[in-house]
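// run 5 | inverse folding | seed 20
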């Protein structure tokens, strides 16, 4: 359990820092050890996630054979995960080590406004990229004529720009909450959860963000995948019926939906679905613990769920390489260029 403590006056810091620092809590030995473990895992995940996602960007990004609409959004997803691993996780690790050593937060409330905006924005870009892949594939198989219009470089670039602008912009009201309107809440350091988050005096703001950035994307992605599965099944049955009756040639057996969603697209779609499931498995426990008293009643469990959440940033590139033969070939070609055979 956590008990209140005074401001960290024993640390040699500027008077400005001491004035801004919030009182934190004494940590039990178990919680302190878990905070230290979280910091170590944050470092490991940061290193693995940074280099593995960078490999995706370098290997797949320069390979023209896999430049499909889905792959472009996969690369956008990897950019978000790369930046999360490069920027957010090292800061998380530093925060954990600082709390373990001094029992107070490295980040002040002012720091939290910047850090939390970046953290949540990159997480939302990740979700929005998965949404974009599911949505464009559903359009491709459901309305091929519309897909021909949106499957253009200018439209895809505009879509990606929208994802970034939206993901960052939707966080601005809270980041500037104390300046423009305190009804939006603000990003502060939470003494009970030992993290930067939306202030506890704005529960409505938290619920709006959870609905907008968690519940809606999950329902939308599931709806897209169910729609795609139904269309693929219908297409498969139509082809089988046509082949049994021999009333159509093999060239005419394929339905427009089947042509719009080729085998390469299906492989990417399967890979992204696995990543979506990993996201749910890793993120849902963290989301649930934020809605109750688990953070204060079971702090070690609360911290362990965060470690579980970070794990996805290093495992997603492994999913790409295992599930998608085109990406594996891209990796092989990339390494051949880097390490040519003598």
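// decoded
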């Amino acid at each position: 359990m956590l008990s209140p403590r005074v401001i960290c006056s024993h640390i040699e810091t500027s008077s400005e820092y001491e004035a801004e620092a919030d009182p934190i809590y004494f940590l039990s030995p178990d919680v302190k050890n878990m905070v230290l473990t979280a910091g170590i895992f944050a470092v490991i995940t940061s290193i693995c996630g940074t280099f593995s996602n960078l490999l995706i960007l370098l290997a797949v990004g320069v390979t023209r054979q896999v430049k499909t609409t889905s792959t472009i959004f996969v690369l956008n997803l990897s950019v978000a995960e790369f930046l999360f691993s490069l920027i957010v996780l090292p800061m998380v690790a530093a925060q954990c080590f600082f709390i373990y050593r001094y029992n107070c937060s490295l980040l002040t409330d002012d720091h939290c406004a910047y850090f939390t905006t970046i953290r949540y924005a990159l997480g939302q870009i990740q979700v929005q990229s998965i949404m974009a892949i599911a949505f464009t594939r559903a359009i491709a198989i459901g309305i091929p004529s519309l897909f021909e219009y949106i499957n253009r470089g200018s439209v895809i670039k505009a879509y990606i720009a929208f994802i970034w602008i939206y993901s960052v912009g939707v966080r601005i009201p809270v980041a500037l909450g104390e300046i423009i309107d305190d009804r939006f809440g603000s990003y502060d350091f939470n003494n009970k959860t030992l993290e930067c988050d939306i202030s506890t005096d704005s529960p409505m703001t938290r619920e709006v963000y959870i609905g907008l950035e968690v519940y809606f994307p999950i329902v939308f992605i599931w709806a897209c995948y169910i729609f795609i599965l139904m269309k693929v099944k219908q297409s498969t049955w139509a082809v089988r019926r046509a082949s049994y009756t021999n009333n159509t040639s093999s060239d005419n057996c394929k339905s427009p939906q089947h042509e719009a969603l080729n085998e390469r697209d299906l492989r990417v779609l399967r890979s992204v679905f696995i990543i979506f499931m990993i996201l749910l498995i890793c993120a849902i426990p963290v989301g649930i613990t934020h809605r109750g008293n688990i953070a204060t009643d079971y702090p070690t469990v609360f911290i362990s769920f965060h470690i579980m959440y970070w794990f996805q940033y290093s495992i997603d590139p492994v999913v790409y390489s295992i599930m998608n033969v085109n990406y594996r070939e891209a990796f092989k070609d990339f390494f051949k260029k880097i390490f040519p055979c003598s």
